[in-house]
Here is the input.
Amino acid sequence: MDSLWNESDAAALADDLLALRVYSSRLLGREASLVLHGGGNTSVKADAVNLFGECERLLYVKGSGWDLATIEKAGFAPVRLDVLQKMARLDALSDADMVNVQRAAMTDPLAPNPSVEAILHAIIPFTFVDHTHADAVVTISNTGDGESRLREIYGDDVLILPYIMPGFVLAKQVYEMTAAIDWSRLKAIILLHHGVFTFADDARESYENMIGLVTQAEQYLAAQAPLQAATSVSAVVDLKQLAAVRRAVSRARGAAVLAQLSDDAESVDFSARPDVAEISTRGPLTPDHVIRTKRTAMIMGDDVEASVAMFSEDYRAYFNRYGNDQLSCLDVAPRWALWPRRGALAFGTTPEECGIISDISRHTMQAIARAEAMGGWQALPQQDIFELEYWELEQAKLNRSGIAPEFRGKVALVTGAASGIGAACVESLLARGAVVAALDINAGIACRFPAASVLGIVCDMNDRNAIANAVSATIRRFGGLDMVISNAGVFPASQRIENMDDDTWQQSMALNLHSHQHLMQATIPYLKLGIDPAIVVVASKNVPAPGPGAAAYSVAKAGLTQLARVAALELGGDGIRVNVLHPNAVFDTAIWTDEVLRKRAASYGLSVEAYKTNNVLQCEVTSRHVAELACAMAGRLFACTTGAQLPVDGGNERVI
Here is the structure.
């Protein structure tokens, strides 16, 4: 591992210890193999003058919720150093009381909660302290003879301590074991199965001690367990099986989740190991990961329902072994799974959560493979993992998570999504927490919306193969499908029946009717495996109240409405709701060109402005109004409604 220290950058911060602390913390944070997704913490000891003009010695320690990769000064909690050092001398202290005392000792009440390892940082007698969960060091630690291997690598330069759960007990152990130690001879402390602490009065020295120690571990691994080049190619992925396991995991979790497949060669290689079920169920890379990934992966078999049920039963047994009457069992759903010869799956309620779980599982698989090559992967005992998973401080974090948006973890597909009603539907779905496949013939759809939550797909809705491919891409990206807003359409130029040309008629039928039927055919198999599945069809006021000159449009939309009614009858037994919206005079859409608008207004003998508000409420209906009602129809408000038709027209006299 290379040092990223830049002396000229650091020199500009030399007079500001906290700024220098931010700088070196970010250098650590840039290395995922050191501080994966918020792991690790850093601190600096500095003097500050209080309101009374008194000089106080403070520990600025990483605050809860901050990531070292992006941390700022505001991310460090200022705590009175003498209070923390006195806490280390107490005989006993609950973790809840520890948090309260640390909070009371802060000089800024608006700062984040100090790290639970603040006391440990305080008793290390150096200005800068760096703590990471370095993959290379922990991988060596997680072998049967890990401690002796680490002593072989580092000799007397490093104090190696057995695993103790973070918090007061760990700080107390270090305090007692180092009471008579000569700190000047040490470069670091290694906590088995946990991580590394380095320290120095100079920021660069502390940082580069960490880089040097990790480099030694990497070199040892390269010699003892070199990485093997991955060569596997994923077997064919059964998308229905993927959707089925996502549904089963969602049910076990009690909330909709996404399923993200990692089918890179390394993941496929690992999943294809004959011993994968045995080695991947021994425990996590570090106990901290249990909060994100649970203790083990699920092994996915051909019967996905049985696979999830087996994992859930094992988790309940694990809770019953180590739990008590004061604890409530968390959900029993897996967070990641190994799909033999296909790769690894991550289950999360958001793309961000899936990404974190996927990253952690990738690091874990690599560590397991290398530890196995050195004699065997050996994680902490189950009880130690359980104690961290059900630690009162971690439980408190979970209880602060708040109420989830209605559609969090759910997958929607919207057609005609580049503008107008379709674009408004995408935005409304995102606001409710959904992820969305946004389809449109416009090439700009690929980058129209935020990349993490939206899959923009260029799709000609008149091409059945293109529709099928778009649906497949949606399932591969998000793991399933729950909601379809079938919106794509065109309003052809006005033509009376006697003057109707075949192209106008056929084009309207193709996009306004046939494409919706093709979309239903492609999505229904996955909606049957969805979470509270629903289809919302965007038809038109021209169905109940057609106008002259719009036969091609009105007939197609009437056929579409009838298609939706039949679909409601056919799909009700599968729990799929199908409802219809009839918008009218929604002028901020692509179909309402200036020419079409002028002609339609003229056909009613109205000006354009009068035509826009020609309804009972005398209001202009917008795409947002339609989108909000479409989302309502796809959600719990319409949970017991199917086959319905609702106008969104400001009140049309002919419809009423």
Summary: Residues 188 and 544 are 77 Å apart (CA to CA). The chain has 24 helices and 18 strands. The chain has a mean pLDDT of 94. The domain at 239-399 is CATH 3.40.225.10 (L-fuculose-1-phosphate Aldolase).
